[in-house]
Amino acid sequence: MSDIIRTTDALVIHDREDLRLDRVPVAAPGRGEVTVRVAWGGICGSDMHYLKHGGVGASVLRAPMILGHEISGFVEAAGPGVHGLAPGEAVAVHPARPCGECPECRRGLRHLCRETRFLGSAAMLPHTDGGFRRLMTVAASQVYPLPPGLDVRAACLAEPLSVALHAIIRAGDVRGRSVLVQGAGPIGALIVAGLKIAGAGEIVATDLQDFPLSIARRMGATTTVNTASAPHVAEHDIVFEVSGAAGALPTAIGCTAKGGVLVQVGMFPPGDVGIPLGQIIARELDYRGSFRFDTEFGTALDLLAAYPWIAEGLVTHRFPLAAFGEAFTASLDRRHSSKVLFDIGG
């Protein structure tokens, strides 16, 4: 075990609607570990679910936990056995630490590891503390040096972009295809960006709000539709259901052309979800789940370096960590915000 040497500010969720800026201990880096001075962190939908509902799906808060898993910063110190990570080096932190031993890990499906530790997750006890803190110690395998030209602020978007890239991989070859992205929040917008880079043909984004659709257009959507006023009924070769609203699934199925691919990215709330299976069978649809990511993290960093318009178009707000109340209020307001960042190092 690493010795505790100091404390740091951290954003801790204690219960539903009970978020506090606390002082927490910082462990010195042990063998194979790195201490990172966190500079930037992005608020994710799961962070908002912990705040509003005390959990995300089956991951229910049972003890105080530090939030945050979209983070970047600078190496503070490296423990014994760590090579290639020098103090002061700009890095991004991969939030997952799979076990490497379970059947999924042995099959190369590390993102589906049944024992994985994911930053800012209450899936297991003890909970896995996240990265909304000024200093944190993690396994060196989770720390990625930034490619040339990538700003440390933009680098915290590698995590959500990795989710988008994994979903696109699940869809198969998207080049020249007609694609619908249902739900234009940050993940949906990043899927649009990934589709543009990958060479998709028509990219249609739908949402119930105008502001996220304006972000989707920045990311490369060729058409946007506000379905609060007019339903979208056109069929597409590939559909990404990103809203996570159970009531939106029949629409996604209906918009998937016969023989097409429907990728489920949005996480549904707990409980059973009604699915019109008859349509999936009769239309011979390929319904694929998409969960987190693995090696896409490095690719995401490279894309953020090569295409700075991704970060420039997605990020709408920045707040110091002490202004966490304002930051979450902004993030929860889909009429005026997309990706909200914490300037943790400022």
TrEMBL record:
Keyword Oxidoreductase: yes
UniProt keyword annotations, A-Z: Metal-binding, Oxidoreductase, Zinc
Keyword hit for Metal-binding: yes
GO molecular function, one term: zinc ion binding
Residue span(s) of domain Alcohol dehydrogenase-like N-terminal: 30-147
Stored PROSITE patterns: ADH_ZINC (PS00059)
All copies of domain Alcohol dehydrogenase-like C-terminal, residue ranges: 186-305
Cofactors, names only: Zn(2+)
Family (UniProt): Belongs to the zinc-containing alcohol dehydrogenase family.
Protein name: L-idonate 5-dehydrogenase
Origin species: Gluconacetobacter takamatsuzukensis
